[in-house]
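Class, study these two lines:
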Amino acid sequence: MTQRHDIRLGADIGGTFTDIALDVRGKLFSTKVLTNYSAPEQAILDGIDIVVRDAGIAPRDIDIVIHGTTLATNALIERRGARTALITTEGFRDVIEMRTENRFEQYDLSLVLPKPLIPREDRFPVKGRIDAQGRELQALDEAALETLADVIAERGFGAVAIGFIHSYMNPAHEQRAREILSRKLAIPISISSEVSPQMREFERFNTVCANAYVRPQMADYLSRLQVRLKEMGAQCPVFMIHSGGGLISVETASEFPVRLVESGPAGGAIFAADIARRFSLDRVVSYDMGGTTAKICLIEDYQPHTARTFEVARTYRFCKGSGMPISIPVIEMIEIGAGGGSIAWVDAMGRIQAGPESAASEPGPACYQRGGERPAITDADLVLGKLDPDNFAGGKIRLSVENASAAIARDVGDRLKLATEAAAFGIVEVVDENMANAARVHAVENGKNISDNIMIAFGGAAPLHAARLCEKLGVDQCLIPQGAGVGSAIGFLKAPFGYEALASKIMGLSKFDAGAINTMLDDLKATAEGFVRAGTDGEIIREITAFMRYAGQGWEIPVALPDRAFTQADTAMIEAAFKERYAQFFGRAVEGPEIEFVTWSVKAQDVRPEGERLTLQLDGGVVPAPVSRAVFDPASGKTLETAIVPRETLSPGARVTGPAVIVERETSTIVTSPFDAVIQIDGTILLVRKGR
């Protein structure tokens, strides 16, 4: 298998824009086009036409396409998936509706829970039982499954999810059920022991339901994309970035589309981690704000924080437990409905609110002149002078200040008796404060102080808000990399071929069975490396993680362990590693209780070149700015005459004194009055607080 990927293309479908980044032997070409909801692949093709023309190549010259998308996420949130049947163990039909019975809002008498993806009438129990040790207690009722296959065919289901109790310990019943059903059904069948082989029935059942629910739609989309790419001359392979930050084949993505749920944001975290490594920054917070959402991720030692579960479609903002849990490896971040297209409104108490509803690309904010009439954050940024109405998205979209002003005045200003500019400032200030609060919460949940980090901002809207966010968080430095407007798509180009395989196996440390653990890990290694080998024949590295806890605790912590065969003598080493990690999380270890393993993970990925290391330059020579315009400065609360500087005119070592706006094709960087901007050797903008 060839390793030559000299010309790589990344494509990120977002809620508002589709970003394209083309790397031609180290030279980057990029563009943003509005997302096409009726035919999402069309936006990718349109973007490819633009970048290959700019690069002077043909589509046939592209060696690899790497794609991430929010389509699976949107299908779950908007409930636009296939009609799905859930087959489960008798007595457990209502697990996905009963959830964990946790009251995430203790005193809310009108608690609103997300509706299960699959209604009760489409959930079918069958007899058969595996116990917690993986032993068969009751044989599977195969005759009932034969009858059930006929029922599913008659009712016109589009997909089937199978989730049996304790199948993570023994998948035999799930595998046999799929075999029986597939004889009569020509629809995709997902089993939980393959999609999410982890303990905790609610999360596992919900994950396999989500996978089955979006599988027909995603398989159809990915098939169309491949066909249309070939029709335009791009004969190269297509790989998908998954939620854990690695690359997988289209075939794997079609079978396990739930792994794509956070694929776009994962690319952004990889992009930020690459910048952190380049400048040797070991504590970084990434800030990714696009057209629909904003994402914040902590990155330590050049690695984004990761988790085994996350939630989509929360009914209560910021409220853990109010969403739909997905139990797969994922880059951990906090995401809020605050993007450039987020709608601003006034609630019953007279407070300005923004999001989570978004104008998206259709009809878009009022200023887009595409039929949108409600004010969005982009409208407020335009009224405040942050955006050039004649040079938005490289001039492809002309913005209307009149439409934006009218929408803000009607829906916000008039209701609160505020001038239009004051209402616009209120909108962006609420958005910035919401993001600052989210960042603080995310840092505290991870035992960190947010102000100890350097920010890396990217996405079409983040550079417009990053300086103000730094003011609120007490962050003194912020990096705006080259290509920040299409950061996630660039991150795709830097992602490794990688996969993480997991399996639950509860075992006390005092009963550690090295042979059984080694056998299980060998299977996980073969699984993970099998997915990686679908894309590369290069060197592979592995990470072994045991998720452990004290017996009786409700959750586990990750403990990194050596990649080798274990022996019975390793119990002391494992105990020491667990206690050290526990102390990092909670201050000190606990003496006395039994330590136990819950889940094991093997992460395999190919070795990627690190690239050149650079040093941050904190000062430089001030450059004059011949052009200026009036821009509202939030730090002073006034409209100030502000320097307008094209990014391409700035050389390394140049210093731009705030307030200023540094403009480029995909975004603009606002340098507020407390900050200056210093251009780094690679063209990255460093926002640095004056006097620091």
Notes: The first helix runs from residue 40 to 55.
